[in-house]
Amino acid sequence: MDFERIVRLKEGESILRIVRSFWLVRLPQAILAGLLITAPFFFMIPLFSLRTFGLIAFLLSIFTGLIYALRLYIEWSCNAFVVTTRRVIDVDQHGFFRRTVSEALYEKLQDVSFTVAGIWGTVFRYGTIVVQTAGSQISLELPYVRRPQELHYLITETAASRQPEDVDGLRSQRVTHLLDAAADLNDAEARAFLVALQEAVNHG
User: Is residue 47 domain-resident?
Assistant: First the structure.
C-alpha cells in the first residue's frame, strides 16, 4: 500500500512509521476464509455427484473464500496510523471501496493515550491507542496495536520536538511586529523604546 499517495505528504514532510493492527486478532477470520477455499476439495466426489448443483456449490465456496480473504487483507493492510514529522494520520478502510482519512497536527494534540485490556491483550501485548485533538470531538483511534506504548512514545516525543520550532516561529513574528511598530515612532519615542528594550534584555 502506497501511503504516500493516500496521505499526500507536504513539502519537507516524511513518514516516520506506519502502524497496523496486530494480525493475530484476525486469525479466526483468516481460518474461516481458508476453510471456505479448501473444504470443497475434500468433498469433490460427493459434490460432483450432484452434477450442476454440486459444481456450483464447489465454485461458489472457493469464490466466496477468495473474496473474503482479499477483503481481510485489504482492510488489514490499509487500516493504519501513519506517523509523520508533522502529523498523525488515521487511515480507515471499510470494505473494498470506502476509505476515511483523518489527521491530527502535533500542535493541536490534546491527549495521547493507550489501553491494554483483557487476557489476550496482556499476553500478546496489544491494545488501543487514542489521539485526541484540542477543540474537536473527533478522536483518532487504532485498536489492536502491538506494543502500543512504543507508538505512544513516538507520537508524544515527535510532538514535543516540534514545540521549540513553534516557539521560535512565534518569537520571530513578535519581533517583526515590534520592528514594524518602532518604524512609526518619532525620534523621542524611538529612543525611549530602545532604552526600554535594552533594560528588558538586560533583566531577561
Answer: yes
> Do 193 and 179 form a contact (C-beta atoms < 8 A)?
no
Q: Tell me which of 17-21, 62-66, 69-73, 104-108 is least confident.
A: 104-108
Distance (Å, rounded) from C-alpha 57 to C-alpha 43?
11
Closest by CA to 30, choosing from 66, 81, 77, 82, is 66
Residue 169: inside a domain: yes
Residues forming a β-bridge with 91? 80, 101
Structural domain boundaries, residue 62: 24-78
Domain limit, last residue, from 59, 78, 97: 78
| In the chain, beta strands by DSSP E | 15-20, 80-84, 87-94, 98-105, 109-115, 126-133, 139-146
21 and 30 Cβ atoms separated by less than 8 Å? no
**55 within a domain of the structure (yes/no):** yes
Kindly state the percentage of the chain with pLDDT values over 90. Answer: 49
The per-residue pLDDT for range 143-182, each reduced to its tens digit, is 999 999 999 999 999 988 876 554 455 455 555 655 666 6
